Amino acid sequence: MLTQAPKGTRDMLPQDAYLWQWIEQKEREAAALAGYREVRTPVFEHTELFLRGVGDTTDIVQKEMYTFKDKGDRSITLKPEGTAGAVRSFIENHLFAETLPCKMYYLNAPIFRYENPQSGRLREHHQFGMECFGGKEPTVEAELISTLMGLLKGLGLKSLTVHINSIGCPQCRPRYHEALKAYLGDRIHDMCETCQARFEKNPLRILDCKEEKCKQIVQDAPVILDFLCDECREHFAQLQSLLAARNIPFSVDPHIVRGLDYYTKTVFEIIMQSGREGLALCGGGRYDGLVEQLGGPATPAAGFGIGAERILIELKNQNLLPPMPSTTDVYVANLGADMKIPAFGFTQALRDCGVKADCDVAGRSLKAQFKFADKIGAKYVAIVGGEEYERGVVKLRNMETKEEKEFPLDQAAEQIARTLQ
Fold first, then answer.
1. Of the residues 317, 338, 372, which one is the last residue of a structural domain?
2. Residue 380, SS3?
3. Could you tell me the residue range of the domain that residue 97 belongs to?
4. Does a structural domain hold residue 323?
5. 394 in a domain, yes or no?
6. Phi, psi (rounded to 5 degrees) for 150
7. Are 289 and 360 in a shared domain?
């Protein structure tokens, strides 16, 4: 199977690269407007980072991680999500000692999860994420949501709404756990094995189960919003006011808990209603305890992650992809074997002037060179050779209008560059 990619992986082909670059540029611009700077963390980390950070009751840790021993007998895991690595970097590089908040983003970050491939979520997929360390106010979550909504709308996506919830904090969440376990007490044996395993360790995660019978059982379960402490309740109320002031459409969804154990207070998802009903494009939230849990100082934090593949799929579904740009502005055709070296030199001169230029590398005839230039979408063909070359000029043909102009050979590259501008 040497010529087949592993299941759940996909090539980014040269003809698709411009789409990724276009989206990444939009992501960089959106992050920069909010004061976020790029961070790049390793593709793999020590397994312990994810056991402690993501949580050993999550599907990611229990079922989906790519974990192996390296030659030093260390347990290593390919990154299954982006936040834990960003937190590790924040701690290791003592970014907490700098002026806070520390705002960072990552893009085209490969994420690895061993699960059945699905639309927009492959075993290797790529995420754009933003993480803010040192901000305790709900303006942090509002900023993240607003930035992300602005990005997605700027790409042309419509029918977007934000679903938000608060899952409390270590002070108020235990009360809710007790109420939820009391409700599930006689019903837990009718639920799936995963929910039964979560019952004692982390009952909140039962609300995230996708099994239909489990979803029916928890439909009438107690709502965590009724158990929030005053601080969490006020934080959640302020977030709603901030989103309303920004005219961002949102709804409160008490069943959102997210699939990671580190979240506290705010959790959110951005949902697309058109196309496929209820498609979650991304998710995020606040994780005030994670930095301290991983060995750093107590630092409030929040962030999100969104898959690039999922964005591309939705842009394609809504016919919002930009046209492929031409790879060649000027194709340099030669009039015979003795003109190959001058044609090559002129091609390089055009490139030195910032012109996207190319020339024959396959030994084509002049007629075949023109056909090739037309096929690759070249706007112009520069002809090097013949009596024009003997007169010291280069002929430039507009491939659309067929209009031809001549330029002095020693000035042709600069003049053609100005013509294209």
1. 317
2. strand
3. 14-172+228-317
4. no
5. yes
6. -65, -40
7. no
192 belongs to a structural domain:
no
- Give dist(CA 363, CA 346) in Å, integer: 17
pTM passes above 0.70: yes
Provide the total of helices (H) and of strands (E) in the chain, helices listed first.
15, 16
**pLDDT per residue rounded down to tens, the chain (421 residues):** 678 999 999 999 999 999 999 999 999 999 999 999 999 999 999 999 998 888 766 767 777 899 999 999 999 999 999 999 999 999 999 999 999 999 999 998 899 999 888 766 799 999 999 999 999 999 999 999 999 999 999 999 988 999 999 999 999 999 998 998 899 888 888 899 888 888 888 888 888 788 888 888 888 889 999 999 999 999 999 999 999 999 999 999 988 887 677 889 999 999 987 655 567 889 999 999 999 999 999 999 999 999 999 999 999 989 999 999 989 999 999 999 999 999 999 999 999 999 999 999 999 999 999 999 999 999 999 999 999 999 999 999 999 999 999 999 999 999 999 999 8
State the total domains in the chain.
Answer: 2
Instruction: Report if residue 222 sits inside a domain.
Output: no
> Bridge partners of 49?
none
Q: Give the C-alpha distances (Å, rounded to integers) separating 222 from 113, 209, 255.
A: 32, 16, 10
Q: Which distant-in-sequence residues (6+ apart) come within 8 Å of 375 by Cβ?
A: none
The reply to whether 303 and 260 lie within a common domain is yes
Q: What is the CATH number of the domain that holds 31?
A: 3.30.930.10
Q: Are residues 301 and 167 in the same domain?
A: yes
Report the alpha-carbon distance of residue 167 to residue 173 in Å, rounded: 7
DSSP 151-170: HHHHTT--SEEEEEEE---T
CA distances from 221 to 183, 185, 253, 261 (A): 6, 11, 13, 20
Question: Which sign does the torsion angle of CA 154, 81, 41, 313 carry?
Answer: negative
